[in-house]
Design a protein that fits this description.
single chain, alpha+beta
Length: 102
């Protein structure tokens, strides 16, 4: 009878580093037609801001032309852009909401 001798080797677990998913800024763009109150409602409804925070962001959009609503993973950001755009169109406002990689 033949016996096999196994070589003793220890397998070491390889640690792979996964990097977090890229984050995207959701931005509102200023226009001359969307009422400021509507922008405040959008920020409260879709970004869970209180009235003070929403007013601050709305004024930034009004004065600087663009304001950041939040930073999210790609799917969440894309969903928020679609929801805001749809809500604005439903209320006949041309409010532009876009996302960009941060």
């Amino acid at each position: 009878m033949a016996t096999r001798k196994q070589s003793e080797s220890v397998l070491e677990a390889e640690r792979t580093k996964t990097k977090p998913p890229p984050l995207f800024k959701v931005l509102l763009l200023n226009d001359d037609y969307t009422p400021m109150d509507f922008v405040v409602v959008v920020l409260q409804k879709f970004f869970s801001m209180n009235r003070e925070q929403a007013t601050r962001i709305m004024l930034k959009v009004h004065k600087e032309g663009v304001g950041t609503c939040g930073i999210f993973p790609r799917d969440v950001a894309a969903t928020k852009v679609e929801l805001v755009t749809g809500f604005a169109r439903e209320h006949q406002h041309p409010l532009a909401c876009v996302m960009e990689e941060s």
